[in-house]
Amino acid sequence: MEGAPSGSTGPGLRERKKQRTRDALLRVALELFTTKGYEETTVDEIAEAVDVSQRTFFRYFANKQEAAFAVQEMVEARFVQAVRDRPAHEDPMTALRGAVLGAWQAMGQSIEEVVPVELHMRTYQMIESTPSLLAVHLRRSIETEDVVARVIAEREGLDLDTDPRPRVAVAAFSGVMRVTGRLWGAGQDASVESIRDLTETYLDHLGPALAADWHAPQSHTGAEASPNPRGASAH
What we know:
Elements: H1 11-35, H2 43-50, H3 54-60, H4 64-68, H5 70-85, H6 92-112, H7 117-129, H8 131-156, H9 165-186, H10 192-204, H11 206-210, H12 229-232
Helix pairs in contact: 1-2, 1-7, 5-6, 5-8, 6-9, 6-10, 7-9, 8-9, 9-10
């Protein structure tokens, strides 16, 4: 940079170095968690593998748990923002569906910038099979549901404290997300495309699953069989 002292590093370079260090710590932590075990991995081992001090690890992560959920937190934040960005005319279920499918479409590249998608999948499996992390995962899911319900209420001009519909809609949608996430985590295909396709398939069955008569002929699936939340409810 013109006028800068020789050998100095600008804010941009420093920030990039910090980001590289954080990404390296995160990748090593997730590799160790998924191969050695979360409880068996120590902060010292993570720091040593990256050739930094324990103090450096705690500069980027408050604890091991924060590292374990770092990528998942990014995915959740992107989804919430995607719901906020959906067109105002969309009914709640259409907005939620569009947000999650659109987010997954763009998420692969975002995840790959930090860790391989395959490592993210193994981390998801590790979280599901580690009791202490699964409890945290469920609590985080509940917190995210509350945030999304508030976004839906704002979109619809509703009072979340008196109208249960946003919470009910998000709870039904989140249930499908948990099922697809669990099935994806247990499968062999680690690609973003696979979880997106699985999510879309299960969302197509949400409407029929909520239908009154399961014994009726299922000649239609997907959008044709799904009820219209906006048309079916009065604001």
